[in-house]
Amino acid sequence: MHPANIPFQTTDWESIPATKHAGDTGEAYWKTLQYGDLRIRIVEYSKNYKADHWCAKGHIIYCIEGEMTTELADGSTYRLTKGMSYQVSDELSSHRTSSGQGVKLFIVDGAFLALK
């Protein structure tokens, strides 16, 4: 079976251990499932979180709770709140995230978002 072929399964996200990732300020906590090049995560950014890098990778991001701001390399900013999502392909819009009050996200990324 190809590593990205996923048989039916459920995920108890509470049982997935979180890994801590420091930002310029604050922390991010990732709970990650990996299937070949497909990555599925629950990510929580702490209060006063600001990413420590510009990201050029593509993502599909759904906001479960809280809010965040995504800044694009062109200087534009977008606010994401509970119930909203954003989608972007690899290499199209370098971005970085910050959150004043904290946020919980569902994120999917992988090679399927690469430019064709």
Folded structure, characterized:
This protein has strands at 19-22, 27-35, 38-45, 49-50, 59-72, 77-81, 85-88, 95-99, 103-109. The chain is built from no helices and nine strands. The mean pLDDT is 94. It has 116 residues and is mainly beta. The protein starts with 18 loop residues before the first strand and ends in a 7-residue tail after the last strand. Strands 1, 2, 3, 4, 5, 6, 7, 8 and 9 form a nine-stranded antiparallel beta sheet that branches.
Short description:
With 116 residues, the protein is mostly beta strands. It has strands at residues 19-22, 27-35, 38-45, 49-50, 59-72, 77-81, 85-88, 95-99, 103-109.
Descriptive terms for the model:
mainly beta, 0% helix
Topology:
Layout: E1 19-22, E2 27-35, E3 38-45, E4 49-50, E5 59-72, E6 77-81, E7 85-88, E8 95-99, E9 103-109
Antiparallel strand pairs: 1-2, 2-3, 3-9, 4-8, 5-6, 5-7, 5-8, 5-9
**End-to-end CA span:** 25 Å
Strand content: over 45%
Could you say which structural class the secondary elements and strand pairing correspond to?
mainly beta
Order of helices and strands: EEEEEEEEE
Tally the helices: what do you get? 0
The largest sheet is: 9 strands, antiparallel
- CA radius of gyration: 14 Å
Shape summary: globular
